[in-house]
Amino acid sequence: MRVLVQPVIDWRKYLISRRDVVGGRLCAKGTRVPVAVILDSLAEGAASDEIITSYPSLKTAHIRAAIAYAAALAREEELTPLSADAHKTRREPARRTG
């Protein structure tokens, strides 16, 4: 069985981060929709057309770009794995007083 794979989209063409838009969070270009919102919606099982219905300024290319961005991050993580303790906050050592 042969699986057709679409070419990987260049997410940089469809996603942008600007300080004056949503506090600099990565968003779909031309919108105020953060990539995290798109990815969260997909993770919850929403279909692309449902996301576009909820956020009419989005295009299918924005959603594909968000997925490509997440894939790029996953590949980067494979090169530099996160440590098991990465989610823990760093604590400063207790200071001794003389």
Task: Please name the defining characteristics of this protein.
98 residues; two-stranded antiparallel sheet; 2 strands; 37% helix
Structure notes:
- This protein is 37% helix and 4% strand.
- It has helices at 35-43, 48-54, 60-79, and strands at residues 15-16, 27-28.
- Strands 1-2 form a two-stranded antiparallel ribbon.
- The model has no long low-confidence stretch (mean pLDDT 84).
Q: What's the quick description here?
A:
This protein is mainly alpha-helical. The chain is 37% helix and 4% strand.
Q: What string, H for helix and E for strand, traces the elements in order?
A: EEHHH
Q: Compute the separation of the termini in Å.
A: 73 Å
Shape: globular
Relevant CATH superfamily of one domain: Winged helix-like DNA-binding domain superfamily/Winged helix DNA-binding domain
Task: Give start-end ranges of low-pLDDT stretches.
Answer: none
User: So how many helices?
Assistant: 3
The Cα radius of gyration reads 18 Å
What is the CATH domain class of one domain?
Answer: Mainly Alpha
Percentage of residues in helical conformation: 25-40%
CATH architecture of one domain: Orthogonal Bundle
Taking strands numbered 1, 2, ... along the chain, how are they ordered across the largest sheet?
1-2
